[in-house]
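Q: May I have one protein plus its fold?
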Amino acid sequence: MIERIFSITTQEQFQSVAMDVFRFQAEHCAVYAQYLRLIGVEPASVTRIEDIPMLPIELFKSHDIYSAATPPQVVFTSSATTGMSVSRHMVADLAIYERDFTQSFRLFYGDIEQWSVYGLLPNYLERTGSSLVYMVDRLIRKAGGGGFYLHDYEKLIADMEADNRPKILIGVTYALLDLAEQYAPKLNNTVVMETGGMKGRRKEMSKEGLHTVLCSAFGVERIHSEYGMAELMSQGYSTGEGLFASPPWMRVLVRDINDPFTHLEAGRRGAIDIIDLGNLYSCSFIATQDVGVAYADNSFRIEGRVTDADIRGCNLLVQ
C-alpha cells in the first residue's frame, strides 16, 4: 500500500488508493470504526471519496487514533497554550513520515541536497514531540548546510550571510517577526517560509499584513508558507499569496460549516476536510477546524478557524 500511495500521479489513482485506505482503516482503526457505527455509515456502502466520513480532528486529543498491529515508533504531539489539551499522533513507522516529507519537498523545491536549511522554531525546540522539528531536523541533515537557531539571531544572520548556497529559512511566525523588527537582515538567495501562528507570543495579524512586513524587512519578493499539523503526515506548501498546493497523495475538500456531511463545490468557502493518505496507520480522513476554499486544481486557501470549533460538527465520540 505504501508504494501505491507515494506513486500516485493521477486523480484516478488517488481515488482508487483512497478507497482502499478507507476500507483498511474502517476495519483496523478502532476509533474510526466506532465513529462510523455511531453515525450509521456502513463502509461497504461508501463508493466515492466525497462520501467518506471525516473523523473530527479533536478526537486526536481524547482517543488513540491508530490502525497498525504493532506499537508506534513515536507519538507526535501538538503545541498548546497553558491549560489546553494536546493532540497525539501515533506514528507506526518513521520511515513513512520521512519518505512523505522528503518526497513532498522534492516535488515543490527540488533535491534537498541543493539547499541549505535554517530552522527558526524556538517554541517547538523548547518542547518535545514536535513533528515539525523532526521534519526540519531531517531536512537539515539531508541538506548541504544550515542548522537550528533558538534565540541567537546574530549568529543566524552571520551564518546565512556566509552561506553562498540557495537557502530556506523556515520559521514560526512570531520569531520571523522578531527577526524582522530587531535586525531586518536582507536575505539574498533565500526562501523565507513561515509555518503560521503566533503561539500566544504576539497579537495575531492578517497574512497579507504579515507578509508585507516580512518582505520589506528581508528584501524578498514573497513569503512562502507551510501548512501542516501534528495530526497529519503530509504538508501543503505556498510559494506566495496564500495559495497552497499539496502532494498527489493529499487532497483538500471543503464541507458546509453547519452540515459536516455535505461537501461544497470547488471555489466555495467552508470548513476544511483533508484526505492525507500518508496517515495510513492512523486515520487519513480528517475534518479540521480550519476554514478556507478549495479549487478544482487541488490548490487551496486557509482563511481562519471555525467559530466555536470545539463544539461544532458531528463529534459523537467527544459527547
Summary: The longest strand covers residues 285-294. The first helix runs from residue 2 to 5. Residues 309-319 have pLDDT under 50 and may be disordered.
